User: What shape does this take?
Amino acid sequence: MTESEMRKNVGYFEGTDPLLLTRLVAHDIDTVPISNGLDNHGKEVRYLTRADEIEIVVGYLHKVVPLDEMKMTTDDMLFSCVAYQIPILLILPEDLEEKARAVLGDVPKGVRFVAPEDAFDEVMKILG
Assistant: This one.
């Protein structure tokens, strides 16, 4: 299988819209569960490496805002994504983007916000 024929992998946090994931699979894109460190949904996002071959991580804002008892920041949680240049697509209504930026403080490099209705198109655009 050539590189251009290889299936792409999209990592997703628990609770990601199942219709989005279904559309991706129908377009020959694999979906891989990713954990935020609390939900045990899949491999913990902090430990992603190039070997995981994740092209993008998608999910909702609340999955990347650590609880106080986690003793970490969003930057800590998404460190591997930033280090390996894996884009993070956070799904939220457009009218909440300013509030999301305030909650996150310094938005980690590679984080993009997208409205739920535009998520599939944005994932496809990022994947090329």
Remarks:
- Residues 18-26 form the longest helix (9 residues).
